[in-house]
């Protein structure tokens, strides 16, 4: 999530800088409108594609890895169907059959949770204000007198308000309108906002600000989009009324001592010296075309830059704090396992953590005891465990391994130890609960030996076969 926030801010700022350098001073208002809206969408969505692909969706099949370990060592590799899972954004709640202190983090409260809660509260407040703002405008519209112009209505307000438009309505001060102080040019300006559907742009940007209020670049785009609306409306008026100085005086007079209305296309929005100068600015078609042509290579280049990660293939997610060396322990000729030692040759004890080199967020943690792996945890973007692997040992020899996802048992692997006559069992469960698959094997998971069974949601046998040393003897069901 942190990587997305940084990437989206940087990409939006880069896109905005391109606008300011190439387009802001050009009278290509319609193209500028398209660019600003498209750039806002691109800058917010494209960085998210990398995040979605990178960490939130997983497809596990033979040959893939789960929490850094080969899938063959955890799940069935021949009969087991592929599983599509979506990582839970919430911490593990309870692992069936185990004590709570074995399954949940002792802190119970983290900075990530505090930040996420703060974001939700602020977003909820802004969303409520957004909805109330729209409701209040429509509520006010119903109370005002109006003059019907067909597709447009002029709403007459008692308070001192500058001419402005919202959707298909123009709001003006009643006294000013009745006394002829609202000129045709001013009404034409507001009609240009209505015919151009500028209110929809404003509402879209305001809604974006509700959910991306933390992104400073969004406010730059909001300002530029609204002032470009004014340029469009001014340009529309001046194509019919060619007296620029007279129109400028009417704008200044119409906005004097009047208030601004949220969500509306306001006549006095950024009525600056630059806006007045844009009315008299000459437009070079050749220069404008050249600047627009420059965008053709620039935009794809930016998309590539901000959505391509340089990956160290040797350290895909970074490196663990402590470098460990595997030491293979052979119980006999048919069974062996690995203990982990330090560079000094000592059996490792304690926790070994891996942090994402790009964000600094804890991604994995493995706990060791006397060189044996006791638990392996994978964390989501909120810093909470969503995958946990627990190992059981019998007199120092691996006996059982269980994998949990967000607190729910996902798979179980019983090792083919000499004590079990080299017979192992692999099982895994449905996401909604209930055993899905069970297979017995000899020495290695792909060497079926005994029953291989698939169950339906009700626990009934769907398919069952009997094997001996990897060969199918009988198809029971």
Structure in a nutshell:
With 477 residues, the protein is an alpha+beta fold. 38% of the residues lie in helices and 27% in strands.
Fill in the keyword field for this structure.
alpha+beta; 5-stranded mixed β-sheet; 38% helix; 11-stranded antiparallel β-sheet; single chain; 477 residues
What's the mean pLDDT score? 79
Uncertain parts:
53-108, 309-316
Give the overall shape. Answer: elongated
How many distinct beta strands?
22
Structural class: alpha+beta
Strand content: 25-35%
Largest sheet: 11 strands, antiparallel
Radius of gyration: 33 Å
Distance between the termini: 48 Å
How large is the count of helical segments? 11
Report the helical percentage: 25-40%
Identify the strand order in the major beta sheet: 12-13-14-15-16-17-18-19-20-21-22
Can you walk me through this structure?
With 477 residues, the chain is an alpha+beta fold. Among the domains are: 2-55 and 200-253 and 269-306, no CATH class; 91-109 and 315-415, no CATH class; 419-477, no CATH class. The chain is 38% helix and 27% strand. It has helices at 2-23, 29-56, 100-103, 111-143, 174-178, 184-195, 198-211, 216-238, 244-254, 273-280, 285-306, and strands at 57-60, 65-66, 69-70, 83-86, 145-148, 153-157, 164-166, 169-173, 265-266, 325-330, 336-341, 350-355, 362-369, 372-379, 385-394, 397-405, 408-414, 423-429, 435-442, 448-455, 461-468, 471-475. It has an eleven-stranded antiparallel beta sheet, with no helix packed on it. A five-stranded mixed beta sheet has the order 5-6-8-7-9, sandwiched between helices. Helix 4 (111-143) packs antiparallel against helix 7 and helix 7 (198-211) packs antiparallel against helix 8 (216-238). The longest helix is centred in the first third of the chain and has 33 residues, at 111-143. It is elongated, with a radius of gyration of 33 Å. Mean pLDDT is 79; it is low at 53-108 and 309-316.
